[in-house]
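User: I'll paste a sequence; please echo it back and then give the predicted structure.

Assistant: Echoing your sequence first, then the prediction.
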Amino acid sequence: MDNWGESMNISKMSHVMSADFLTHHLSAVLTAGLTAILLVLFGLTRIKDVSSKKLVRPPGPSGIPLLGNLLTVAFSKLYQHELVNQWSKKYGDVFWFKIFGTGVVIINDMDVVQKTFQNSEVCDRAPFFALDHVIGRENNGIAFANGGSWKEQRKFFVSVFRKVDIGVSRLEDIVSDQVRNIVTQVKNLKGEKFDPAIMVNMSIANIITRIITGVTYKWEDKKFQHIVACSGKLFDISGPAGLFSLNPVFARLPLPVNYEIRRLSLSIVDFIQESIDEHRKHFKSYPDAKAKDYIGAYLKEMAGADANTLKSFDDSNLVVSCFDALLAGWETVASTLRWTIYLLSTHPEAQERMRQEILDLVGSERFPTIADRQHLPLTEATIAECMRFIPAVPIHLPHVTSQDCKIGGFDVPKGSAVAANLHHFAKSPTLWEDPDVFRPERFIDDEGKFKRGMEPIPFGYGKRQCPGEQLARMEMFIFTTFLVQNFDLRLPAGAKADLQGVLGLTWRPNHYFIEGRPINSNEE
């Protein structure tokens, strides 16, 4: 027993000694390993520092380690475009700042914008992580996709939206029907003041929803109201973080704003999926029927797709393409129209000249059509001046560099965000004479024709130019001409001018009231 007990004690002691030895040895190994890693990292840092000295990075504000300029952007009392413009004055036409180590390049030079955004190296987009989380897959749809999938999806989207007809309905008829409804409602008010926001928002939402889903909703429809509200809120809460909400680190943080973006995105996806399910039932019963909307056209494309050529046509890309179209087709155009109505109401002389041109050509017995557009240069100039005077998108959604490249003579690393400063292009005194003066004639040449191409790229530039531009321009023209032809738009007596707004992903005017005094009582 004693020998056995002694053996046990020795065994225990050996085990303890062995454990101590292993612990000590492991500690030594870890220490040596950590030291080696630190030395390697230090060496790499030194190599990077040496190599960086050979590169010419864009100038910009200094930041703090890891966070970069996040705190300045997030907590500045200035709106983001105001902060960016302040930095522009200090650092020049091409500069950058950093968010969590990701460089954000801002361009204030039109020549550099044109050269940069035609470059395939500056053509990617950062993912929309909240939507990817909802879908369960990355690289979907159009707005935030890249590579071959994006090219296929965009090409198909443009082919549908550039058609004169969507099934049995012309795009112009879809838009005109909504604006006729507004004209009727405003006439029924008999000059009483009203807030145009609801009319504009619901009408624009109905246009894009009709094109995508084939359904025209009544404004009082609860489901429709809910989806419009979700879209507006998604723009609202994404906006304050607009320049860095797509940053992979920020987007994955367990923040309430990120959970809310996911919830809102899911609501819109569910709305789309319900429509797709209804379309699919009809398609199975009538596979040869002519498509009446985007979802129908997409299902037909999927059914006839050659697996060797149309690899990206699937359910996920269908849902996200519809998501992209609905959001892009709602808020941006609605904000632009609300600013346009406000500016016309505060510039009665310009509005009257525009109205007289419309009446001289079109008269009062019919509404204007897109075919009239080329014969209404002052009308086009006035719309262009409204879009220049207050851009609804002060800073374009950034592109992302797919590899190291040069921008404006500076070396920009792969993965950097690159954005055009539209607010600068719209309001710079070096680009415009008296930029703070509302003057539509600046877009008229010596022959009295509209100067096409002078607008400060409201729909983007290059390979990522807005694929729905044709529809957006149609909406702007029809809404504006219908209203000006039929009403004298004025602010109520005593109302103060207010050019301040609310920054979401778009720059929207504060709520305002106008009076629409009927010009005539004729309706088509």
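The longest helix spans residues 2-52. The mean pLDDT is 85.
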